[in-house]
Amino acid sequence: MKQLVFKEPYPKQRDFLLSRTRYTAYGGARGGGKSHVARMKAELLCLRYSGIQVLFMRRTYPELKENHLLPAMRELNGVAKYNGTDKAFVFPNGARLKFGYCRHDSDLSQYQGQAYDVIFLEECTQFPEKVFTTMTESNRSSGLMDEFFPPRMYFTCNPGGVGHAWFKRLFIDRDFVKKEKPENYLFIQANVYDNKALMRNSPEYVNALENLPEDRKRAMLYGEWDVFEGMYFPEFRRETHVCEAFPIPDHWTRYKALDYGFDMLAVGWFAVDENGTAYLYKEYCEGKDLGEGHDGLILSDAANAILERSDELERDAITFAPPDLWNRRQDTGRSAADRFAECGVFMEKAKNGRVLGWLDLKEYLKVRKDTGKPSLMIFSNCTQTIKSIPMLLHDEKHPDDVANEPHEYTHPADMLRYFVAGRPIAASEPREYNELTTEEEMGNVFSY
Predict the structure, then answer these.
(1) Taking a C-beta distance cutoff of 8 angstroms, is the pair 92, 50 a contact?
(2) CA 80/CA 147 separation, integer angstroms
(3) pTM > 0.90
(4) The predicted structure's pLDDT at residue 18
(5) N or C end of the chain, less CB within 10 A?
(6) What is the pLDDT of residue 436?
């Protein structure tokens, strides 16, 4: 039988090859040798473990074919038998390496009920979270191995894509929920500078990465996860737009804004100073999309949640809300806005033009020359909004609009959009009155 010979892996690749962590991710930047080491790992597992069932996935079939199927045919020629119909290699020891893809939700059905000891998601940030969670259901013991082997999943990726948010939460931010265990997640960061062979043989590729525009270079060359290709608001910077909380002066103009759906409620409390700078100083986000077992809020519960969190000044503040809350139900003739009002939350209809609204929000995020800071500042306690803005992507079909996925991050952003669309006005300077104020002046004040 033909022997399979691999080039010596460099240190970061070796760490990936040796990892037995339940979920291991590798990469984070261009040129780190991700695809090669992932396929190497899959082939080595099949050579080492009799009967092991391995699934290797990319988002689309053309990507799968060019980047992995054709190279695997060359590498495994004479080592394993290829079944073109099944797109799988069967090894003499009974191990099986299947190549698959999943571009649409309907493609997931072909993997339901299947059992794979190991699953690779290559360029995993191109997969929505639903694909990841669904594939974990198929990542279980196949029952075909001669020895005990705990199921594992391996991932490669760069920053950006529809799966950026779920990957960053698990592997970068390590923000775990429910029964997720920190010890089960390992990320091995690698970039082009770790790939000595590429540095030596293709210095022009390294130069090309170093010449990229700054934001893209930060993601593709250095593997930074706070900026990536496709993000809608690359101008958002934590160091620029986020500030520590401080007492809000009583004379600043107060507003509220909300985005409501049964799946999610996002509410923001705003104050605008004399210069027109708006501060989001409090938020409340609740719903199914947070992934914490919430069942959603009915209208009366949503209204009560807002009132419970509002003081006297805030209760009287104008509340901007989307126009669809004024749509009347055919069976009752009443709208969601009517129900909110009955509960004590009175709202004002905000404009709902999405593209113009996002452009308005971009204007609010731009640093002003007169104040040296943006027109929108966010208190550091508004964590859900701060987390959401960088996660928003351009819609693939309508690039001027924000994509609807990842959906859980769109609600706080919509709440911000309704606020800026409401055209909030700046606070007036407070006037001080003392005992020397003349009767005529006081009359002028009260007539005003």
Answers:
(1) no
(2) 21
(3) no
(4) 96
(5) C
(6) 44
Domain span at residue 109 reads 11-220
Q: Are residues 131 and 274 in the same domain?
A: no
Beta bridge partners of 267: 258, 284
Structural domain count, the chain: 2
What count of other Cβ atoms lies within 10 Å of the Cβ of residue 165? 23
- Cβ-contact 225, 206 below 8 angstroms: no
Q: Could you list the mean pLDDT of each consecutive 10-residue stretch along the chain, which spans 448 residues? A: 79 94 89 87 96 97 94 94 95 96 88 94 93 95 92 93 91 92 95 75 79 77 78 92 96 96 90 96 80 64 94 94 90 88 94 94 96 97 94 91 90 96 87 51 44
pLDDT for 435: 46
Q: Looking at residue 379, which CATH number applies to its domain?
A: 3.30.420.280
- Looking at the fold, whether 71 and 140 belong to one and the same domain comes out as yes
